[in-house]
Specification:
With 147 residues, the protein is of the alpha+beta class. It is built from three helices and ten strands. Strand 5 and strand 6 form a beta hairpin.
């Protein structure tokens, strides 16, 4: 990402890998003041979840706007919860931390990824499809059944 600055608290220990990474597919800008939980709820309504720090760092950032990743939260020694964000300070490209409990202005932007289908819903859909299939081997027809 060619960053000029990275907060020293942004480490693998403080922000451990959280499983499968998805591509950032939407940047939310709500045009109203809100808190983190409200921003996450708005994303959820549209079928998105907040991006993690790893997803944010793999995204092709244009370097213009400040972009927050509410999907990765670290609690510092004082008990404050912090989230990573990309910013531009003059000509410098930077990765900082901000308070999760911060009241976000309507100018803030949040990276998000489309929610994946849950395995249970996929299994259910495949099972239903298999139940309706018949195969023919030679002259005999066989109906597939759910196990």
């Amino acid at each position: 990402m060619k960053l000029d600055y990275c907060n020293s608290d942004i480490t693998e220990e403080n922000f451990p890998e959280q499983g499968k990474r998805e591509k950032v597919s939407k940047i939310f800008k709500f045009d109203k003041n809100m808190i983190s939980e409200e921003a996450i709820a708005e994303m959820d309504k549209e079928g998105y979840r907040p991006a993690t720090i790893y997803e944010l760092l793999e995204w092709d950032w244009d370097g213009k706007d400040w972009i927050f990743a509410l999907g990765s939260v670290w609690q510092d020694r004082s008990g404050d919860r912090r989230v990573p964000y990309l910013s531009r300070g003059g000509s410098l490209r930077e990765l900082h931390l901000c308070w999760f409990g911060y009241g976000w202005s309507g100018l803030c932007r949040f990276a998000a990824v489309r929610k994946s289908e849950t395995p249970d819903s996929l299994i259910s859909g495949v099972s239903g499809l298999l139940n309706s299939l018949e195969i023919k081997i030679g002259e005999k027809k066989y109906k597939l059944i759910e196990i």
